[in-house]
């Protein structure tokens, strides 16, 4: 799957017409399903799915802007007829609709939820069950940015203003049209077959039955490639409805304090490990971080799911997507390490990232602030320089892998911002001062610049979040006295 494409330049809002420009038609050639996220000026989010029903490309020319204006009007309306947009969460219990079956029936086209098979008309959102999915009117018009380009526009959500596109990506390779993704994306990178796994991906004895059981199994899996395969398997089952319970009741298993690593892995102090210079050493260090990042995504699900019953289904969809992305990143880096003759595990690793996980284990709000809005956001700052180093050495394959990783990480910081602001709204606190207090309490040292303000802003992190801020972890300070995490009341209907 390619990473999120840059949305900054092409997202524009036409508030007078109440439509939002989403993406050029030429950019929806490779797949039939796309996931995208909108953020309002008030900081609220919408996760939506764009379905392109025809398996044939919607335009004859994939990227040639010059041919687009010559399309006859009936071609334009034909393109629009193939496009449907709906909320990504099922209105029944919130299952991810990205893997819904699409079926034609007497009344029109319906999307069938993978969890309980309720079907929803893709134009009206109606279902025989009385539930109604949120669908959006789609039009194909000239771009507001470049009038020679045809773009997909959707009717703006009504509850807020100033919506902008913050993420747009194909759902998965499963929905890729032949020929698949363009050469410069992941398909150009040779990901080797995984070596023989030490155990079955799905244990024959007591296989996990819920998402949280899978999360805990994966957290306790020390073999890195088995961790990757189990992540792919669990997310696939969750999306396709074969795993239709989150399982956050009282019998949910507990995640380990620290996910285990293979016996032969050598741990060193993070400061020592940071003195890396060669390409292989840099890639090895990044692979180590990605392995912890897979665990962090599953830990968020297993640790905070049962403890925070108001977290909606979308939280679990987002974190399964992050886990899958991190598994992909780890595999990409393993592939590059293998090409450079340095297998993963031959160099020492560190566990600095997990220290922050331990520090924030008691609060989803603290975890989101420190792991996603401090550590992952710092990745956005440093990735461009890392990519430039590999480019300077002519390692174009590593550049391709690291660019995919960087684009995905923007969406992970976006998810961190989304759920941090959600939790703040639930607790009735202002996100910016709350974030700054979280950093003071749970982070040590100054947030270092220079900051990648453009990508931080894409992810929702405005400068007032992070500028002139230092963590005081370990030091007593006045604000600690007033800093109380309010309990969240349980609600009914959580899965
Ligand atoms: S029918 Fe979609 S979650 Fe039940």
From TrEMBL:
The keyword Iron applies. Residues 55-147 form the Rieske domain. Keywords: 2Fe-2S, Iron, Iron-sulfur, Metal-binding. One of its GO terms (molecular function) is 2 iron, 2 sulfur cluster binding. Residues 242-263 are annotated as: Disordered. CDD domains: Ferritin_like (cd00657). This is Rieske domain-containing protein. It comes from Phellinidium pouzarii.
């Amino acid at each position: 799957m390619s990473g999120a494409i840059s949305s900054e330049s092409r997202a524009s809002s036409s508030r007078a017409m109440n439509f939002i420009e989403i993406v050029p038609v030429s950019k929806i050639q490779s797949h039939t399903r796309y996931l995208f996220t909108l953020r309002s000026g008030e900081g609220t989010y919408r996760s939506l799915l764009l379905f392109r029903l025809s398996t044939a490309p919607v335009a004859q020319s994939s990227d040639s802007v010059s041919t687009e204006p010559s399309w006859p009007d009936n071609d334009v309306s034909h393109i629009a007829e193939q496009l449907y947009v709906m909320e990504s969460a099922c209105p029944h219990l919130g299952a991810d609709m990205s893997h819904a079956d699409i079926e034609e029936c007497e009344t029109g086209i319906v999307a069938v939820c993978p969890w309980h098979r309720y079907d929803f008309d893709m134009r009206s959102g109606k279902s025989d069950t009385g539930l109604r999915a949120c669908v959006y009117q789609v039009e194909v018009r000239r771009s507001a940015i470049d009038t020679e380009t045809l773009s997909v526009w959707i009717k703006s959500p009504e509850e807020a203003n100033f919506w902008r596109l913050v993420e747009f990506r194909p759902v998965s390779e499963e929905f890729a049209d032949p020929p698949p993704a363009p050469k410069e994306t992941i398909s150009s990178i040779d990901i080797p077959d995984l070596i023989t796994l030490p155990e079955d991906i799905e244990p024959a004895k007591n296989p996990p039955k819920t998402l949280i059981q899978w999360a805990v199994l994966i957290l306790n899996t020390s073999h890195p490639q088995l961790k990757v395969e189990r992540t792919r398997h669990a997310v696939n089952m969750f999306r396709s409805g074969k795993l239709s319970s989150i399982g956050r009741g009282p019998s949910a298993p507990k995640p380990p304090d620290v996910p285990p690593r293979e016996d032969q892995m050598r741990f060193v102090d993070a400061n020592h490990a940071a003195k890396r210079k060669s390409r292989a050493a840099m890639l090895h260090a990044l692979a180590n971080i990605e392995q912890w990042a897979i665990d962090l995504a599953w830990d968020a699900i297993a640790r905070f799911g049962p403890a925070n019953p108001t977290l909606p289904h979308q939280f679990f969809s987002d974190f399964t997507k992050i886990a899958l992305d991190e598994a992909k990143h780890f595999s990409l880096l393993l592939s590059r390490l293998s090409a450079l003759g340095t297998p993963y595990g031959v160099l020492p690793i560190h566990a600095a990232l997990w220290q922050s996980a331990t520090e924030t284990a008691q609060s989803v709000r603290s975890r989101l602030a420190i792991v996603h809005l401090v550590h992952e956001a710092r990745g956005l700052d440093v990735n461009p320089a890392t990519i430039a180093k590999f480019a300077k050495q002519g390692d174009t394959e590593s550049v391709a892998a690291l660019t995919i990783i960087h684009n995905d990480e923007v969406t992970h910081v976006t998810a961190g911002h989304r759920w941090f602001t959600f939790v703040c709204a639930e607790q009735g606190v202002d996100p910016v001062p709350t974030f700054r207090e979280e950093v003071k309490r749970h982070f040590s040292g100054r947030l270092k610049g220079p900051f990648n303000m453009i990508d931080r802003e894409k992810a929702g992190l405005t400068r007032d979040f992070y500028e002139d801020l230092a963590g005081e972890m370990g030091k007593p300070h006045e604000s600690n006295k007033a800093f109380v995490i309010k309990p969240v009341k349980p609600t009914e209907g959580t899965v």
